[in-house]
Design a protein that fits this description.
Blueprint lengths: L1 H19 L6 H8 L3 H28 L2 H20 L4 H29 L5 H18 L2 H10 L1 H22 L14 H12 L4 H31 L4 H26 L3 H21 L5 H13 L4 H11 L5 H29 L5 H23 L12
Amino acid sequence: MRWIGWILLSVCFVMAYLLRLSAGVLREALEGDFALSASTFGLMSSMAFYAYTFMQIPVGVLADSRGVRFTVVWGMAIAGAGALLFAASTGVWGLYAGRVLIGAGVAGAFVCAMRFLANNFSGDIFGTLSGATSFIGNTGAILAQAPLAFAVALLTWRVTFSALGGVCLLLALLAFFILPPEPYRAGATSFSLSSLKKGISSVYSRRGMIALTISYLGTSTGFFVISGTWGVSWVSAVTSLDTGPFLAGLNAAGMMVGVVVAGRVSDRLRSRRKPLIFFAGLQALSWGIFVFFGAFFPAAVLAPFFFFLGFFGGSLVIYWTVAKELNTAGTTGLSIALINTATFLSVAILTSLIGFALDWGSALPPAIAYRNAFTLQLAMAAAGFFASLFIPESFGRRAE
């Protein structure tokens, strides 16, 4: 049953990616129905990331204390309700509220998948299975591009999101019947303010956790900038091509391949630090090239470049593994939730700031306006590489 449970949680992770990243292909449709500016659209998109961020610690605690089944069932039900509310929205506040519920609901999918792996699979294959989980989850990122754009064009965005809400509710029902209940785990952080403070203190007293968090958020934001909100718009505005959803899908495909390669290489080498530095350095370099020269790339170069921007972000699977190995079994969910909290707060803020920067630069040529706005993401990637130099080597062994 552990393999069936893992597959079900991976499918929940697919829905989490799809719903979080769905805004990118909706800009034209939503602007037509609600007359959204770039900053308003960016804020609307970021609502899911803000909610996802602020729910990371609670779902981490719930996964550690109440178990995976409890957390996933309630989470997917809330996500389904959010998708249905989004579909029924008659104004921008309804869009905001729907995105908030979506972000809050899917917040537990990843943490619960990692908690389930830690509970049911040996440490020798944790990195590989983490990569496989992310690979499967990233199919949701691909589905959120050209396939979602096609569904919206064929069915309208309201019908499409009503269907997605129904899928989430079905997954909640399946999780209730398939996933095993878990007894209270001794040593887990309980859901109270005092124990939460103690758990956070325990996690960040571990050497390397601060550097790990900074590096993780610095190397993870780029993928969500491209695939989640602004990649399709950049292609349309800067290159005048209509291949934005396809290129954003290639970015997601690159991430899918990258997480499998990174996880496998890390497990084979029994080294976490070296692959992290390698991937973070190449991602920062790639973003530097993209920001300053991407507008001049021919279409034949853009496709592989978008792929490798995603590929070099695949190191995120190693960050999850290091977070597990630097901490004790009772704080696995919390430690991963904490680095996710910092990351998705950064994504939410960065998504909004890019929208504001584009509005401020609306009088500039699109290539210059996007270059200035995307410089914010380049700074994040550079910070991620610098912080990776201070992450300790865990050698695939878990802390006691």
